[in-house]
Amino acid sequence: MEELFSSNKYCTRCILRYSVENVNQVFESEQFSPVTGCGLCLDVLSDENIEKTVLSIVEQLKKYEAPLYTLAIQLPQCILIRAYSLSVFIKQKKLIKNSSINVIPIKESLKHKIIQQVDELSLKKHCSKSTVLVDLIYSHETNAADLSKIPQKKSKKKYFCKTKNSQPEVTNQVIEDFLSNLKESEISKYISFPPLSVTSLCNFSVNTCQESIFIAGRYNKYSRELSQTPWIIEGERKTKSSVQDLICGKMQEAVQASDNKFISSGREDVDVLMLGKGRPFAVELINPKVSGLERNLVQKLQDAINKSTDLISVRDLQVMHRGAIQKLKEGEEEKKKLYRARIWCPLPVSTEKIDSVCILKNIVLMQKTPIRVLHRRPLITRERTIYETNITRIDDFHYDLFITTQAGTYVKEFVHGDFGRTNPSLRTLLNADVDILELDVQNVEFDWPPSCDDVNCVND
C-alpha cells in the first residue's frame, strides 16, 4: 500500500478503509496527513465536510419533537466507479497480500461518524425505525463526466428512471452490471485508472421529514352552502370555506404539519346536508413536527373543531395507522346510503301511484354521467341500485322521499330523470313531473372508524 500512500491522491481515511478491521479505526488514526480532493471519497470523509453536515442535520432536527431519527445517505454514483477502479488497480499491482480485498465502504464510514456526532449534539438518538427521516444527499461536478462514459444500453429491466428534466438517470444497478461485465484490460477506456484526485468539494443538501400522522373520524355537515373540499373553478373560489378547511386547519396547526390531505368515503354536493352518524373520513397530516398525539389530545382537538363552527361537527376522532386508512376506500360501491329528498310536483299524486312505488325493491338504474358534472367526469353509463323507497305526503305538492341506495347513485337525477339520462327515474315511475327541492344524507352504512364512546378507542 506504500505506493498509494506516496501518491498523495487519497485521504488518510480512505487508505485506512483498505487496511483496518472496523469502522472506528478509520477515524482513530491520523498517522498520515490528509489531502485535499481525495480521488475516492471526494473529501466527504474530511473533518470539514463532516462538521458542516452534522451542524446542518442538528439544526434541522430542532424542528421535531421526536427523540429518535434515522439517517439515509446518498453519495455521488461516480464513487462506485472510482472504488472499482482502485480495487482492480490494487489487485493487479498486488498491493495487498490477501487475494480478497476487505474494504470498509465510504457510506458506512461516513454514516458511523455523522451519527456519533449528531447524537451527541442533538441529544437525540439514531434508530432505523424512527418516523423522522434525515436524507443527506451529496453531489459532485465530476459525477456527470464519469457516468457519461458508461454505455446506456436499452434494457427490459427498469434500470433507467426519468429525472425532472426527462433525461434518463443511470441507476446503481446499471453501474454495477456494467462494472461486473467489464474486462480488466478495458478499464482505462471508461475509468481513470487508478482514480485521480479532484479539485472541488462535494455539495450536499439535508432534507428532513416525519412520517405522516393519520387522523380518522366522521363528520356532519349542516350547511347547504359548504363544499366538502375547496371549490375552485378557473382560479376563483366559489365557497368561502369547506369541510376540509374547517377540519384540517385545526389538525394541521395542532401537529405543525407542512400540508394535509383529506380522504373521505364518498362526497355530498355543496347543497346537501350530511346528517346521522356522519360520513367517514381521514386526514393525512404531512411532515408533522409533533411526533404523536395521545388520546386526550385528540379529544381536545375534536372539541376545538366542534366549538369553532356551527357548519360542521366531527366525532370519533382517532389516530390510525396508514394501513387502516385503506379500508376507507375498500368496497366503495357496495356501501349503502340512506337519503331524504324533499320533492315537488305541480299536480297531486294519487296514493295508489305512491304505494306502487313504495313496494318496489332493488330497482336497477342505468345512469349516464349527469349533465351537471360532465365538465369534470367522463361520459359513461353506471349501473346503480335503489334498494328501498318510501314516500310521505306533506301536502298535495310536496313529498318526502326516503331511499336506500348503492353508493355512487346520483339521487337528484333519480328524482327528475336528467332528461332521460337516468332510467328508470321517480318521474317515470310516478308518471309525474316531479323535481327535487333539497337533499340530505341521513346515513352512510359503513362501520368505520370504530366508535370512540369507549375510552379505550381502537386505533389500528
TrEMBL record:
EC number, UniProt record: 5.4.99.25
Pfam families, per database record: Pus10_C, Pus10_N_euk
Stretches assigned to coiled coil: none
InterPro entries reported for this sequence: PsdUridine_synth_cat_dom_sf, Pus10-like, Pus10-like_C, Pus10_N_euk
Entry keyword set: Isomerase, tRNA processing
Annotated Pus10 N-terminal eukaryotes domain residues: 38-206
Location of the Pus10-like C-terminal domain: 214-445
Family listed: Belongs to the pseudouridine synthase Pus10 family.
Protein name: tRNA pseudouridine(55) synthase
Species, as recorded: Hydra vulgaris
Gene: LOC100201849
